[in-house]
Amino acid sequence: MKTALIGAGLAIIGLVAAVVGILSPQALLELLDRVAPVLGFVIGLTIVADLAAEAGLFSWLAGIAARFSLGRVWVLWLLVVVLALLCTIFLSLDTTAVLLTPVVVLVARRVGASPLPFAFTTVWLANCGSMLLPVSNLTNLLAVHALGSPHPLDYAALVAPAAAVSVLVPLVAIAVRYRRELAATFTPVPVDAAADPVLFRVSAIVVVLLVPALVTGVAVWIPAAAAALVLIVTFALRRREALRLTLVPWGTLLFASGLFLVVAAAQALGLARVLGDVVGTGDSFGDLLRLSGGAALSANVANNLPAYLALEPVGGSPLRLVAILIGVNVGCIVTPWASLATLLWHGRLTGLGVEVPWGRFALAGLLITVVALPLAILALTFA
């Protein structure tokens, strides 16, 4: 609700800017042409993720991880790492934050393990692990346009070294901080059977087919919409009550739309010139680190979506654009509002009775950012 209200306020500001002439009709049409496919992808993928979770797919995957962890918490944690990474890379960071967080916390409790290393793993990998593919993060989908719409595999090749470093740093931090909790053992538990085997199988097939479809180079909203349609039809036949208007992420859509409008208006007023003086130019290590640091600071002050859009005009080269992505994706783990995924993650934890003080979260995120950003830029520069 708060996200929707903030988005409505931002949308009103953007519409006022259009009415008074700050945003021209042509600028609005160009903005719509750019963001409509992105928002369409969000709608389709959110519906797929929610219905797949309703069918028990994610709970089953977490149960399988617990079953094959050999009674060792650190093995279970590594399997959760793999699951979180795959979920983030192919189904987006918000899917990991919304759907995987409660699953891994409940599995940790079920085997008697501390939920904290699993909770931090999901949120940090949701953000820091969202570099590798365009579909992993909305900021990446926006950046693809500025990068000349490369094939997803070409995009992955460009960002892979930095993406690998961005994942390793938070994992090392968790392994060191929670080494005692991860060294514990437990008695393996059986995997619960799906309530509706037909829904489970259809959901599993849809997700398995969707993953490669998202990296074929076809506009990502098309396979996401097709997958959503298949699951909607299946649930209409098998479990109609699961189909509800809240499957569409209205709050997220309104929030993102408002941010897009406000940043477009700010760009029309000369925001890029001001930011250009702050973050500088050039493709050297120092220049890229300065740009990435500015992007991280902007994301934590505001949010990573407007931070990326505001800085995109001062990119100017593939390396600089990726440096911006490193800042807004990896560096957005300090303040809770820097990433929508973090807010969604915290809401799920609160509902499960897991308390994570924002002070501790901010300090841990700051330490990871200070280490990860220079290393990721180093990997980007010299790979």
From TrEMBL:
Domain Citrate transporter-like as annotated: residue spans: 3-312
Keywords tagged on the record: Arsenical resistance, Cell membrane, Membrane, Transmembrane, Transmembrane helix, Transport
InterPro entries, per database record: Arsenical_pump_ArsB, Cit_transptr-like_dom
Signal peptide per UniProt: none
Keyword field contains Membrane: yes
Topological category with respect to the lipid bilayer: Multi-pass membrane protein
Compartment list: Cell membrane
Transmembrane segments: 6-23, 35-62, 74-107, 155-178, 198-215, 221-238, 250-269, 321-346, 358-382
Family: Belongs to the ArsB family. Belongs to the CitM (TC 2.A.11) transporter family.
Protein name per its UniProtKB record: ArsB/NhaD family transporter
Species name: Frondihabitans peucedani
